[in-house]
Amino acid sequence: MFFRNLVILLLATAAIQCQQLLPPSIQSTNPASDPFKALAPIIETVTNFARLADVLLRSISYHRELGKEESNLPASPKTYTYSNTSDVYQESVLYAKLCAASNCKASYDKWDCGEYCNSTVPDGVVIRAFATHPLGVHGYNIQQQLVPHPRIPGAKVQLGLLSSMINIRDIVYRTIRDQLKLHPEYQVRVAGHSYGAGIGSLLTVDLAQRLPQLNSTNLVAYLLGKPRVGNKAYAAYVAEKNITIKRLVQVADGKYYRLADKNTLTD
Ligand SMILES: *[C@@H]1O[C@H](CO)[C@@H](O)[C@H](O)[C@H]1NC(C)=O
Ligand SMILES: *[C@@H]1O[C@H](CO)[C@@H](O)[C@H](O)[C@H]1NC(C)=O
Ligand SMILES: *[C@@H]1O[C@H](CO)[C@@H](O)[C@H](O)[C@H]1NC(C)=O
Ligand SMILES: *[C@@H]1O[C@H](CO)[C@@H](O)[C@H](O)[C@H]1NC(C)=O
How far away, in angstroms, is 6 Cα from ligand 4 center? Predict the structure, then answer.
């Protein structure tokens, strides 16, 4: 069975723009020992409601700015469109459902993988689930400030996404490492939507850097509706290292929604 050979990592986000931040444990007494921990001083923490309101206001202005910025970006040089009968489309639907399994549920207070898991991974085992506030990934999705990526010279990435990734990277790394020890033939797939897709990009790079047994075939990310994560040096690094990241965009998304056939996907 396909899914027996699959370690799936679910990252998804609720439409909640505000999250709690890195726990105190992330702050290192010896920043030099871990380049990721060295970032702790610049990652903000929400401590009270007044601060929260401020964060929400900044979130609105962030999304406005981001929209402006995105509209000035050049179009992707290579874009592929798939019909709804293609394998790529079907595969994308699968990963979209997996994202929905962690994202679209009645209650954010308790984990219930529900019908999405039953229909997509009937023999799957959820080892660890992450979602956004209040239960899951700590991080700050509205810090759009670009900061140096601790392990990619010259690359800059969004601080909010990076802080969320740092929050879960060791848990994810240890889980995948242990599973690969037990099952070296496992395929690792990272799936994420929206903010979770942004974290998924950084996490895929992190896994590729830390687990030499992973390569462009056995590590693949399916990222849906992903925001921009970093600068050109970051994108160049991903390309140069052959890290397989499939960015999926429904043509119906955003400004294209009136123009295109809804039953196609653009990669
Ligand atoms: C694909 O799209 C066509 C035209 O919109 C629709 O009739 C058909 O049911 C769709 N097929 C699948 C498998 O979703
Ligand atoms: C999923 O499957 C389990 C076990 O078969 C069942 O108990 C549960 O009701 C199902 N949930 C949904 C939402 O289909
Ligand atoms: C990727 O790694 C797997 C397992 O280590 C190996 O079997 C496979 O040949 C590698 N593929 C490539 C393209 O390097
Ligand atoms: C990436 O893939 C290309 C073509 O498949 C190959 O020539 C190159 O050596 C690979 N680079 C790395 C770092 O694996």
Answer: 24
